[in-house]
C-alpha cells in the first residue's frame, strides 16, 4: 500500500512538473511574440520618423524650392534633366559647333532676340543664357504642355531632314525649337521655351529657381 501511495505521489509530482514546464514554455513563447511585436513597432516607428523627416524637403521642392545642380561631370554636348516645381528642367552643355549654329537659325525662328517675356532679362541674348555654353530651359512645349524630344544632332541623323541644325522637336503637334530653345516659324507653339530663374554659384554649380544674387 505504501508503495502505491509513493508511486501515486511521484506521478502527481511528475504531472505538476510537466504542467509547470508547459507553463514556462508558454510564457517564453508569449515573451518572444511580445518582444517581436515591440521590435516591429519600433522599426515601423523608425521608418515613419524617416519618412516624416523627408516630407518637408519634398513639400519644399514641390513648392518651388531652389535646386542645386553639380555640372562637374556634364561634358560638352551632353544634356541632363532636373526637376523644379514639378517641371523638367534641361541643362545642355553646348559645344562650340552648337553655338555657331545659332546664327544659322536666326532667320528661321519667330523670336530670335527673345523679346517675348519667356526668360529673365539676363537671358535675353542670342544664346539665351548667362554663360554661352550652358543652356537652361524648362522642357515643356509652349503650345499645349507636351515635353519635346531632344534632337541635338544636326542633319539627317536627327530624322528631321538634312537642313536641321539641332534642337528640340515636340512630337505632339510638330513644334520645333533650336539649340537656344527658340521656336521656329510656322509651328503651333507661340513662344520660345521658357528659361527659368537661375544663377551660377561657381563654375560647376548651378542653382535653379533662385536668381536673387543677380538682382
Structure write-up:
The protein is of the alpha+beta class and 215 residues long. The protein has two domains: 1-63; 67-214, Rieske Iron-sulfur Protein (3-layer Sandwich), CATH 2.102.10. It has helices spanning 2-62, 96-100, and strands spanning 67-70, 79-84, 87-93, 134-138, 149-151, 167-169, 176-178, 198-202, 205-208. It has a three-stranded antiparallel sheet with strand order 1-9-8, with no helix packed on it. It has a three-stranded antiparallel sheet with strand order 2-3-4, with no helix packed on it. Strands 5-6-7 form a three-stranded antiparallel sheet, with no helix packed on it. The termini are far apart. The model is unreliable at 4-8 and 37-56 (pLDDT under 50).
Amino acid at each position: 500500500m505504501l508503495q502505491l501511495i509513493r508511486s501515486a505521489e511521484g506521478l502527481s509530482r511528475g504531472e505538476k512538473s510537466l504542467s509547470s514546464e508547459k507553463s514556462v514554455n508558454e510564457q517564453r513563447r508569449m515573451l518572444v511574440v511580445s518582444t517581436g511585436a515591440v521590435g516591429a513597432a519600433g522599426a515601423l516607428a523608425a521608418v515613419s520618423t524617416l519618412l516624416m523627416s523627408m516630407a518637408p524637403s519634398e513639400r519644399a521642392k514641390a513648392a518651388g524650392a531652389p535646386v542645386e545642380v553639380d555640372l562637374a561631370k556634364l561634358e560638352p554636348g551632353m544634356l541632363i534633366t532636373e526637376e523644379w516645381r514639378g517641371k523638367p528642367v534641361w541643362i545642355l552643355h553646348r559645344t562650340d559647333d552648337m553655338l555657331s549654329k545659332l546664327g544659322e537659325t536666326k532667320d528661321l525662328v519667330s523670336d530670335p532676340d527673345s523679346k517675348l517675356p519667356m526668360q529673365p532679362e539676363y537671358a535675353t541674348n542670342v544664346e539665351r543664357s548667362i554663360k554661352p555654353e550652358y543652356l537652361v530651359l524648362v522642357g515643356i512645349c509652349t503650345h499645349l504642355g507636351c515635353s519635346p524630344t531632344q534632337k541635338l544632332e544636326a542633319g539627317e541623323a536627327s530624322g528631321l531632314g538634312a537642313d536641321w541644325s539641332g534642337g528640340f522637336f515636340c512630337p505632339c503637334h510638330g513644334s520645333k525649337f533650336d539649340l537656344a530653345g527658340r521656336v521656329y516659324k510656322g509651328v503651333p507653339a507661340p513662344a520660345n521655351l521658357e528659361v527659368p530663374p537661375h544663377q551660377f554659384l561657381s563654375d560647376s554649380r548651378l542653382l535653379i529657381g533662385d536668381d536673387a544674387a543677380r538682382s
